[in-house]
Design a protein that fits this description.
Elements: H1 3-9, E1 16-21, H2 25-35, E2 43-44, H3 46-60, E3 67-74, E4 79-80, E5 85-95, E6 100-108, E7 114-123
Antiparallel strand pairs: 1-5, 2-4, 3-7, 5-6, 6-7
């Protein structure tokens, strides 16, 4: 069995990975300057929340070599400055014939409210 197939075989529906992060006013100001975006006040910009999912998919689950094919995100609320945000990805479907992985994604605020939810389809190439 190839290394790629062996690594794919270790994945299971229901596997998940999470990361928690707080963004300070200073970090948001720096991001706005670098991105040439308007400052967002006390709200965490959506691209910084999306970056948490990118980190998880590329580093944790499925991991290195993962390539995005599709992603959908919905933002029913905003993350707040200095609020602990927790992003989680969960495998919802595995397609070994094509090395495709479907994942649900969710980011919550420290009070449990949903900041973002969505899904991703990735190609596993480890």
């Amino acid at each position: 069995m190839s290394t790629r197939l062996a690594a794919f075989a270790r994945l299971n529906t229901g596997d998940s990975a999470s990361i928690s992060r707080r963004y300070s006013h200073r970090e948001l100001q720096t991001w706005a300057r670098i991105a040439r975006a308007p400052e967002s006040g006390d709200q965490v910009p959506e691209p910084l929340i999306a970056a948490l999912f990118s980190y998880l998919l590329g580093e944790k689950l499925p991991g290195h070599g993962t390539n995005y094919l599709k992603q959908h995100m919905r933002f029913p609320d905003h993350g707040r400055v200095d609020e602990k945000l927790t992003a989680t990805v969960t495998i919802t479907r595995l397609r070994p014939d094509k090395a495709l992985v479907n994942l649900a994604s969710r980011c919550t605020g420290e009070d449990g409210r949903i900041i973002c939810d969505g899904e991703s389809l990735v190609l596993f190439k480890r």
